[in-house]
């Protein structure tokens, strides 16, 4: 932890963030205002948000068994540490769709961020820009596409000018532009879809990600209990992308006066699924608009769908069960990752989502074949506490956790030593993580 004994390497010494926190506490008496232990962080978020905000971020389908399956799947894979390995510098960098990024971590698309902080999506977009990590904007966002892009660009520009966050060596140093993803919920009005695609491209979103598992909301009892659907409560929160869209407003502005849920019902969770034929059409449109930039499908949970995604022209997939929010009693996403990697891993970029909480979780997903992971609930919990400062604290803690895990487990390079290295893991089919109330007994 001695910063004077840290030679420069391919990656920043994210591990020093732990030392920074310790020294602030010891020398200045400044302690973090909230815990970054994932379970404690989720629990403390209840005190920061009203019920609508808390349950929108944390509700699951049905009894929550799929959410639990996500965590159990991580528990069953165990890291195999190595010793006498020189990990004085680490290489956490990876490349995704032609962009070199400092760590294999992305900001997942989460809607209605104004439920967690008044600036909404501007918060995570700013932190992603500061850290050089990819950011993905949801169609159900509570800020216009253009405003989010501007916040992300501004933070990235400051980072590049100071070059103080990314002091790692490499072909593009700390000034590489990270990819910006636009996550599309595609309704059945093609004119509106094309308007969204053009807006996203014009604003600098250079990867399109189509979510295919949420054309209909899953059965979520904890939201039903409090009629938790903010789009119907009047105002603009959750409808900002639609209300800032010229095509949607030209067609539906008068209807909005009577039906505040017109945007969300017709264009986001529209109740009628698309087929692979429509996906082909969308890929063609995006390629034309963007000049051939990548197209990704989010919601893959089996090898057959992964192969089909490749056949229709997708460059990437997101292996996810929507964090357990859609189908209750389903497989954990990490359970199916190895078979999906075996089916298409040499042909496509594979992003993993659902259940990431810690640095070791990131390590395990990469070892099982993911090129990068997406983090969602963690950054929402952080911004719910202290907006930008809270979001920054949580993500820098996650980066430090990953960096320290690599250091003490004896793995220097994410790409060379961890990526698709099943020898770095041991599978144990027995046991499940302890329930929350068991921690007090430990």
From TrEMBL:
Transmembrane segments: none annotated. PANTHER family: L-LACTATE DEHYDROGENASE (AFU_ORTHOLOGUE AFUA_4G07050), S -2-HYDROXY-ACID OXIDASE-RELATED. FMN binds at residues 109-111, 138, 183, 211, 298, 353-357, 376-377. Glyoxylate binds at residues 56, 185, 220, 322, 325. Gene3D superfamilies: Aldolase class I. This is FMN hydroxy acid dehydrogenase domain-containing protein. It comes from Phanerochaete carnosa (strain HHB-10118-sp). InterPro entries: Aldolase_TIM, Alpha-hydoxy_acid_DH_FMN, FMN-dep_DH, FMN_HAD. The active site is at 322 (proton acceptor). The keyword Flavoprotein applies. Belongs to the FMN-dependent alpha-hydroxy acid dehydrogenase family. Its cofactor is FMN. Residues 30-427 form the FMN hydroxy acid dehydrogenase domain. GO terms for molecular function: FMN binding; oxidoreductase activity. It holds the Pfam family FMN_dh. Keywords: Flavoprotein, FMN, Oxidoreductase.
